[in-house]
Amino acid sequence: MKNFISNVFKDVHISFTSHFSASFSICFFIFIIWLAVYSYIRKKNNISTKPDYKKIIFSFALLGCYFMIFFETIYSRPPHSRDSLSLVFYFENIFKDLDAGKYSVENILLFIPEGFLWAGIFQKSKKFLKVTLISFLSSLAIEITQLLTGRGYFQLSDLTTNTIGGVTGYICYVIVFFIIENITNNNKKTKT
User: Fold this and answer.
1) What is the pLDDT of residues 128-148, one digit of tens each?
2) Helix (H) or strand (E) holding 85
3) Separation CA 88–CA 83 (nearest Å)
4) What Rg, from alpha-carbon coordinates, does the chain have?
5) Angle at 61 between CA 112 and CA 101, to 5 degrees
6) Over the range 170-185, which residues count as b (16 or more CB within 10 Å of their CB) and which as e?
7) E-state strands within 108-175
8) What is the pTM of this model?
């Protein structure tokens, strides 16, 4: 088990360090262009209302997250190196095959930030369903792209684990902001 966990952390660390700088740079460049255009439009149209900074930050973080996912699942693999379709779930092998279990955990971890950030962007109504649907659809887009380009295997089990990752990110968001709201409310109560 210790070896399994260390292998997962090793793979996550390699992926994160190799793709983070490119994702951050692209996202930062897009943010600077967007900020210039947005500031110009606000000034030209005399808009005085304050923007929703939380949504802006979460949106650009989500863009960076999608660049990371793209680099990890498609760009980092040579074209036509993998070109098969797996319509079976390999979950029964997760506990028998160390690599199958490791890839499942890594797929879940890859989509946690996406679920967390989408949960922060959406309004309260039907947030869970929206996050689940978007996680599934973005995973489906990745799997189809991998199949068409030969840069990965189309696997139903990846669709499931990626969607579980998005839902886990949503749950993390709910927990984090529940704690933040309780701390904020307790601080307000103690000041009065």
Assistant:
1) 999 999 999 999 999 888 888
2) strand 85-86
3) 16
4) 20
5) 20
6) bbebeeeeeeeeeeee
7) 154-155
8) 0.78
